[in-house]
Amino acid sequence: MKKRIWFNRWFNTAYHFINLIKNNDEGTQFEVFGTHPNINSAVLAACDYAESEPTICGKDYVEYCISFCKKHKIDIFVPKNQMLYISEYIKEFHNIGTLVLASNNPELLRTINNKPKFYDLCKRHNIVELPQYYVVNTADEFIKAYKALLNEGHMVCIKPVSTEGGFEFRVIDDESDRLGRLFGELSYYATSDEVYKVLSLNDKFPDLMVSEYLDGHEYSIDCLAYERTLFAAVPRKKLEGRVRLLEHVPELHEIARKISEEYKLPYVFNIQVKYKNGVPKLLEINPRMSGGLHMSCLSGVNFPYLAIKLLEGKTIEVPEPKFGIKVTQIDKDIILA
Fold first, then answer.
1. How far apart are CA 214 and CA 282, in angstroms?
2. From 3.40.50.2300, 3.30.470.20, 3.40.630.30, 3.90.550.10, which CATH number describes the 108-128+216-327 domain?
3. Candidate ranges 123-127, 185-189, 211-215; pick with highest mean pLDDT
4. What burial class does residue 238 get, using C-beta atoms within 10 Å of its C-beta: 0-12 exposed, 13-18 middle, 19+ buried?
5. Which residues contact 288 (CB under 8 A, 6 or more apart)?
6. Range with the lowest mean pLDDT among 81-95, 97-111, 178-192, 222-236?
7. Which of 4, 72, 150, 155 is positioned for an S-S bond with 213, CB 3.0–4.6 A?
8. Could you give the count of Cα atoms lying within 13 Å of 215 in the half-sphere of its Cβ?
9. Of 76, 59, 152, the residue nearest 304 (C-alpha)
10. What is d(CA 99, CA 119) in angstroms, rounded to the nearest whole number?
């Protein structure tokens, strides 16, 4: 009998995760359910059953999820949308026979989702170097923090404390070509005057991190773990454009091992670090499958499928990852249901 697995609202690259689970080398069969507010989401094209999901949140969304699992007899639920809320009710999902691929520690997830709070936690455990940063709520606090970091010899960047991806990230550069940024490619640069003027439109705004800018190589480390045991860690080095290098870096593996042991993040998670002066510093942790996980799977480690086996309490055999592989992505036309 096929196992029923459900992906709620995910980003488009979950299309690859679903196919990696379906095409596992053990012949385990799955029937994949997918939901998304946008019925034309590419993820749904990889599913056997798809429908639109409501745009609700909190307990209302959790109740929708429990109802969906009951109705479709879901064996395994792989949440991304509102994972934090869902993690608070994992026992209720288990009570109806549905396993949830998420941490059952919502307090940790809340901390990870707030970068300053998680950075404070990391400071206490001294696992990984952190960038120097300030948290500000007013335009004047921004200028004060900006000048303090500048006086330390740092380039400066800003980012909301709770965000996903790099879309809201900006590098502060008063020497940048404003005309070039206006008519050139999409830029992540802004001047301090521009930022100050925008922030001044509000007396106070949500927490904003003002941080030293890390100008070295950036790595995204995909990890497979359970109960403090790290089974695999594959660092992806960001090269030009959409090119990535799967690279064996012992110090990054050690960081992944320490984070796995200290925080007991289960199944699949992702660590992002960036170098400065030869030192890797933490950007963030994603307690879920990362958007580029399918590239790390080219190492020979089928992260999504092995994570499902760990969730089911099964013993896994993890192949030694292959490194030195340079990968990229291309757009692919697919037929939507």
1. 10
2. 3.30.470.20
3. 211-215
4. middle
5. 80, 83, 102, 268, 269, 270
6. 178-192
7. 155
8. 8
9. 76
10. 30
Q: What is the mean pLDDT of residues 301-305?
A: 98
Amino acid identity of residue 208, one-letter, is L
105/166: higher pLDDT: 105
Q: In terms of Cα–Cα distance, which of 150, 82, 163 is closest to 116? A: 163
pLDDT band at 240 (very low <50, low <70, confident <90, very high): very high
Alpha-carbon distance 41 to 52, whole Å?
10
CB 122 within 8 A of CB 128: yes
Instruction: Count other C-beta atoms under 10 Å from residue 240's C-beta.
Output: 6
CATH (residue range 3-102): 3.40.50.20
- Candidates 34, 38, 91, 37; CA nearest to 68 is 34
**What is the pTM (predicted TM-score) of this model?**
0.94
Q: What is the mean pLDDT of the chain?
A: 94
Residue 201: pLDDT band by 50, 70, 90 thresholds? very high
Rounded Cα distance, 222 and 269, in Å: 6
